[in-house]
Design goal:
The complex is a heterodimer of chains A (about 270) and B (about 325).
Chain A lengths: L2 H21 L1 H25 L11 H30 L2 H6 L5 H24 L11 H26 L5 H17 L12 H9 L1 H13 L7 H7 L4 H24 L3
Chain B lengths: L6 E10 L2 E11 L4 E5 L6 H8 L7 E6 L2 E2 L4 H7 E4 L11 H11 L4 H14 L15 H13 L5 E5 L7 H18 L2 E6 L2 H4 L4 E6 L2 E6 L1 H6 L4 E7 L2 H11 L5 E3 L2 E6 L2 H11 L4 E7 L3 H9 L10 H8 L14
Parallel strand pairs in B: 3-8, 3-9, 6-7, 7-8
Antiparallel strand pairs in B: 1-2, 1-4, 4-5, 9-10, 11-13, 11-14, 12-13
The chains are: A mainly alpha (about 270), B alpha/beta (about 325).
């Protein structure tokens, strides 16, 4: 086992997942449809209910939820990297991978990398929609956003690998995943501000990587928008280094837990 | 160095919870040998292979494959072996060629070697012309052949085959054995396989008969059969109990009832049969006389027959008990 052979094996695993993603057009379309539905139903539907603007003078409601929708999209797509593991197990192919002279750490890392890769493709396509929402991100905003998306995607992909290493069937994985997805969505500040919630919800929200990711996305996407002090304190809860640090720590913990759990599988 | 066994196993044990699937097996396999593990479903064959290919950790005992310990040098063992599992492990959304290419990558086979070796192994199993077809469109036999080609791609020293012919039609079975024999001759590779088909065990240089997690006999097929004497006589009669009693008493023959028939192994079958007809009081309803097969060896050792499809209830239960492990018959796709 050399570093070279591990890199080659890891690259091959990564390339296979990306190729499969590319070949399954239906998956790309359906995973894009979901955020568009969110933006359409919540953004346009609630806009009128809320009287033209969202809870903030400076923002449309659709602009308010857009960072959260990106976060949800990353969570959904990158965690589905876990589904590819469970499906490979069901179809037997995982055994070909597990018995090869490749370290489990390489396999788990390649799976996380594939999750990050697919998330980046999705977010790039999603960003093409931003002009329709009155946001005109410049190249610097896009570069920073890509960095932030990668950071979040490492955490969520590792979460997917962690669940997958413990679950035997695709149905079981989807059940567990659905169960986790909605609390993560709604307790992230993506759709409503979490300033007047009971302490236990606040506690859960503080453990949610999406909370910090949405905060970080808002910092990046609203950089051209003038926000008043009240809006600022409600929308941008933490400062940027704080968000990055917390997501990075969560990513490392989840990555370590998932590779450890993956390595212990028999 | 050349005399060192390719596989050395000593007191290997594997437990799943309270159930002991493999109960201290020991054997050696020489370089270039085709070695078979013969036993009914649930006997511990797949579990043993699982430990030898480093997918299952032994509960206790030692095993070395190609000179490397399966406990402490798993990586080295994996580099030295090719494996064909009982269930398919191909990526059906890729072509045959792409499956081999992926394999070459994860086994770090140099590109030049791949170019030379991939067509060679594909031609051996007669799949070269179908290399660009998606595996999804392969038949069951083609998939199994592709797996064998893939198992050989990286020049392994030992090839493991877990029930390689299960689910194949008779022609494919015979063809598969021809490939295995051809490869073994050409490359002097060591082959370790499991089977519950008696007829297939005959292809092996040596076989170990395994039952309830233990090796009950280990020898060449010829020697195992010779151990039973000259002929096997089976008769059924209107009263089998009485027949056995009479055979033991009057003719001093080692008769016993197995599977609802009276069986005896004797030196001279035709002569004994003539005696039996003369002396037996119960009416004889059927007679069978044959040279001992491995089936007879198995029945003689375990007191029951191996059947292809009906594992005994206890065996079924045992394979279900393996549920928590991802390895073993319990994980088979419905």
């Amino acid at each position: 086992m050399s570093v070279r052979s591990e890199v080659r094996a890891g690259w091959s695993l990564f390339r296979r997942d990306m190729l499969k993603f590319y070949r399954e057009r239906a998956r790309i379309v359906s995973s894009l449809l979901q955020p568009i539905l969110f933006l359409g139903i919540f953004g346009l539907g609630l806009k009128d209910v809320l009287g033209g603007t969202g809870p903030f003078q400076e923002l449309d409601y659709i602009q308010y939820i857009f960072p959260g929708v990106i976060g949800i999209n990353v969570l959904g797509i990158s965690t589905s990297t876990g589904v590819t593991i469970v499906a490979d197990r069901e179809f037997g192919f995982l055994r070909e991978v597990l018995v090869a002279p490749v370290s489990r750490w390489t396999i788990a890392s390649a799976k996380v990398a594939a999750g990050v890769g697919t998330a980046l493709i999705q977010v790039t396509v999603l960003m093409l929609l931003s002009p329709f929402m009155g946001l005109t991100p410049g190249p610097d905003v896009i570069i920073r956003l890509i960095g932030a998306v990668m950071l979040l995607a490492v955490a969520t992909s590792a979460l997917g690998v962690l669940i997958a290493s413990r679950i035997r069937s695709v149905e079981g994985f989807q059940y567990v995943f659905q169960f986790m997805l909605f609390p993560l969505f709604f307790l992230s500040g993506a759709f409503f501000v979490l300033d007047r919630v009971p302490p236990w919800i606040e506690f859960v929200a503080n453990l949610n990587p999406l909370t910090y990711a949405v905060d970080l996305f808002r910092h990046i996407l609203y950089s051209d928008i003038e926000l008043g002090p009240t809006s600022r304190s409600l929308l941008l809860v933490n400062d940027v280094p704080q968000d990055i640090l917390i997501i990075a720590v969560m990513s490392i913990v989840l990555l370590a837990a998932s590779t450890f759990s993956f390595a212990r599988m028999e | 160095m050349n005399d060192e066994p390719m596989i050395e196993v000593e007191s290997l044990v594997r437990r799943f919870g309270a159930f002991e699937a493999v109960r201290g097996v020991s054997f050696d396999v020489a370089r270039g040998e085709v070695f078979g593990f013969l036993g009914p479903n649930g006997a511990g064959k797949t579990t043993t292979i699982g430990m030898l290919v480093t997918m299952l950790r032994p509960t206790s005992g030692q095993a070395r494959v190609a000179g490397h310990s399966v406990r402490t040098q798993a990586q080295r063992v994996r580099e030295s072996i090719g494996i064909v599992f009982q269930e398919p492990t191909l990526d059906e959304s890729l072509t045959g060629w792409e499956n081999l290419h992926f394999h070459a990558d994860v086994y770090n086979l140099p590109a030049a070697d791949f170019k030379e070796r991939a067509p060679q192994v594909l031609k051996t199993v007669e799949l070269y012309d179908r290399r660009n077809t998606l595996v999804r469109n392969y038949s069951g036999g083609m998939k199994r052949r592709l797996e064998i080609a893939r198992g050989l791609l990286h020049y392994p020293k030992v090839l493991f085959l877990d029930e390689p012919t299960i689910g194949l039609d008779p022609q494919s079975r015979v063809a598969l054995w021809e490939y295995i024999r051809e490869i073994q001759r050409r490359e002097a590779i060591t082959v370790f396989l499991t089977t519950h088909y008696m007829a297939e065990a005959e292809y092996c240089d040596r076989i170990a008969i395994i039952d309830h997690g233990e090796i009950v006999a280990l020898d060449t097929p010829a020697m195992l059969k010779a151990g039973l004497g000259g002929d096997v006589v089976t008769i059924t009669s209107s009263d089998n109990e009485l027949a056995v009693h009479e055979l033991q008493l009057f003719l001093e023959l080692p008769a016993r009832i197995e599977d609802g028939a009276v069986r005896l192994e004797v030196e001279d079958g035709p002569r004994t049969l003539a005696q039996i007809f003369r002396r037996l009081t119960p009416e004889i309803t059927s007679v069978d006389l044959h040279k001992p097969s491995l089936e007879d060896v198995f029945i003689n050792l375990t007191g029951r027959a191996i059947r292809d499809d009906e594992a005994s209830q206890a065996d079924k239960l045992r394979s279900q008990m393996r549920g928590p492990a991802s390895f073993g018959p319990g994980m088979r796709r419905p």
